[in-house]
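Section: Multi-chain targets

For targets with more than one molecule, the full set of components is provided together so that the structure can be written out for the assembly as a whole rather than chain by chain. Components appear in the order listed by the source. The example entry contains two components.
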Amino acid sequence: MPEVFIDNERYEFEGDYMALQFILDLGKEVPFFCYHPSMSIPANCRQCMVKAGQYIKDEETGEYELDENGERKIRWFPKMQTSCALKLSDGMVIQTQETSEEAERAQKDTLEFLLINHPLDCPICDQAGECPLQIQTYKYGPEGSRFEVKKVHKPKRVQLGPRVTLDAERCINCTRCVRFAEEISETNQLTIVSRGDKNYPMTAPSETFDDPYSLNTVDICPVGALTSTDFRFKARVWEMNQTPSIDITNGKGCNIDLWTRDNEVLRITPRHNPEVNDYWMPDEGREAFEQFNKNRVSRPSITLDENNQSNTSWNNAVETFAEILEAHDPDQLAVFGTPHASVEENYAFNKFFNLLGASNARFTPHIIPGYGDDFLITDDQAPNTNGCRLINLEETDDTGIQSAVTSAKVVIILSDDLVGRGVLSADDLADRYTISLATNQSDTTEASDLVIPITCVAEHAASYVNIDGRIQRSFPAKETKYTNRRLNLEMSEGRLDRYGTNFDNWVNEEHKIDCLPVWEFLNHLGERIGLEFQYDHSRAIFDEMSDRIDPLKGISYERMDEELGVQLPIEQQEVTQA
Amino acid sequence: MVEDWKSYEPLIIPDIPNLHRIEVYEEHDGYRAFRRILDNPEEWSRTNVTNEVKAANIRGRGGAGFNAGLKWSFMPQPDERPRYLACNGDESEPGTFKDRNIFEFNPHLFIEGALIAAYAMSVDVIYVYIRGEYIDWVRIFEKAVEEAYEKGYLGEDILGTGIDIEMYTTYGAGAYICGEETGMLESLEGKRGYPRIKPPFPAQKGLWGNPTTINNIETLANVPLVINNGADWYQSIGAEDHNGPVLYGISGHVNKPGVYEYPAGMPVEDLIYDVAGGIRGNKELKALIPGGTSTPVLRADQLEGVSMDSNSLRDAGSMMGTAGMVVLDEDTDMVDLLWRITHFFHHESCGQCTPCREGTGWLEKVLLKIKNGEGEIKDLDLLLDMTTQMEGRTICALADAAAWPVRHTINRFRDEFEERCKKSVHAVA
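Its structure, encoded as tokens over all components, is:
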């Protein structure tokens, strides 16, 4: 097998490899800016320079030639090589900054150049704390500056498009954003304008950067040149908790991170998953962060008289719900699950009403034909359509939902804005007692007689099955009134959580939603009406499902965490559907 | 060194009126070399043409001085992909203005050379990329191409041989970097003139990913001479290891600036004092930039016995470049001159690679500071440091081209630079 020698260690490799990627895969480090594993290699930042050469092989014997001291002879390349564009070949010798002073010097020199015209406004820059330029300057850069002349001035606060703001002075011209728009989103909306040290990325005159994936350029920008218009100046990265989760705005299930501070989700960024979304996600999914904080249903509410909903206690909510259930036969109930909620929620919800004697909950997929693209935006507006199929909810269409409502006395809707998305009208529900278990205020909750606030994807651990049949799960990222970050082992903790107290600036009770996970509410309700129904945690639900549902056999939260989600044999599932 | 140059008759830009017209060119044996090849395809197989040109060792006239025939031989075997010849007429380094004379006075010689090259490399399409500021010469050249099409030298089924070669003329928008060979390819493809990383080399992956060879205009104009007279004859002209006629573009403080055709290896002093009519106002020679402003400047005392060929200039401490000689007299302010050169490279850096983008600007700003009398001695060392930080660290050679003049001008005229710097405020014991 071909071999390379990196920092005096021997490694074997197979196939085509660029030195930088190979070194990174080894877990070693070489600083770089313009290189991105999912895009073309321009080798323009010149940061990843290494010293490289080749052991000289005797053509006839195939053996390495030795010098008088018995050492292998090396033919060094005449110039420093950018490792990102250096293709490994058999017998190649590479010295990174760890073993070569020349490489270390070359990297330092490039950083000095990168910094001379950089504004060094880190204290007010959003990128600070997660800035490759800052980090690598700290690690590999020169001390102080020899630059005593005027910096180049370029446009600042340029609104490139509805979601992205440019500070051209911070730009280091790595062209990652330009290449993203060319190669990944393929809108070609960006280019570099002007020349030399005056150049910066820009749209064509009068064009706006309204690429549906535009915010990915903010993620990959190695400096603070491109910032999210919405998130600018809102929070420092080190103040936030970063919790892995799943994009619930469409069927793709992009892997994401929820960034929270003081129990508010402040931004959403993609999490690398080569099987689903690579490094990317649509802008729509990021804009969803508001729905976790605002317009939430907090505390149960009840309609006392017409058009007058008012908050009520959990006790009263349970009592009212129980009375309604006791006053009706199971066949007078129309029970609707939803592709907008997780598998666990739907399963527990459906099981509860099965135990009561009702048939399987119905659901209707939320599809807008033609809405998607062939990248990460899907026609399916919901994250868990396949999950509903997986647990055998009764799939129906809008008319099926309507006729179920017509023949029912009580309508129970799990987290689905059926009125808002036009499946039902408020009038359809007017003469029926309607109970909504919902995360957010909607036309449906408004038309309901009893609204039970439940946790959203940012507040519970639960799994979702995407359009390709991959099951992936969320973690609780923000507390509710009834959870405690330090007691909940699923929750990530930031520095502030660890050291903050109730008197800390960052602890604000108002941001905690007064809601319960569906299963927990149903525990209370079951206890009240004497139903044998008890799940302590969504894990218990998932364990039960993986025992009972074939495609979920052998799957656990741990496996999903390790493997970034698990592909289910979903075709098989579709066959059993038919 | 060439001594009998006075009897030399120009071959590339001979003194023949209206040679740019195809009838006149044909009257003077124009397109004879090309016809000879087409008429004797066995004697002049594609390989034989390449070998003849390789044996003649036409050193690339665009500055790098690489053997043109050898370059042709790097083209892969023909496959289903189209093959291109891209002709570089984007000369825009200060001091370089020789290709312009070919476009104006003998465009058909170049067209013929390009056709022979295209034949030798089985090329289907020739692109001619001309400096945008040369719009008048673009028009002259386009007319010549039109004539060549009319006469059947270009287009489909050339002279009834079944060979098809198309030629397209295009011109730049004013960027020096588009004269860098891969920058030119990008520009030809309609993109920003960002030089490409090599490998892959253009012969493997050039225009639109297809095999492409890039030659300078003057280089190709030498090709018909080689075919007509043979490699041995070509080797007999000029200096050892650097043959053939060269267009010397002489500018600066001389009485008769202009483009002069003489053999390679001309004595520098003869070129300045005889050919270009001596220094203006009978001043003393101070320095010479031998081959365009990127080549290292030579002091007058370094020029003794030096001739214009790569070996002699290398020994003297500079390079042949494009033979665009900038003659500087005793009144030249080297600080001003160097500042102006760095201004050029700062303005022309494409901005792709960090060391060049940032370095060229920094060089200019520090030199401006020194020029304005605000520099300090340490700035000179900073400038020299910067040149080391830039050289060999970028995709193309523009950073080198910007760094060399700074390093060599400061090293060779350090006194002048130190004199312009602020005096140290610290007492020296």
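The longest strand of chain A covers residues 49-55.
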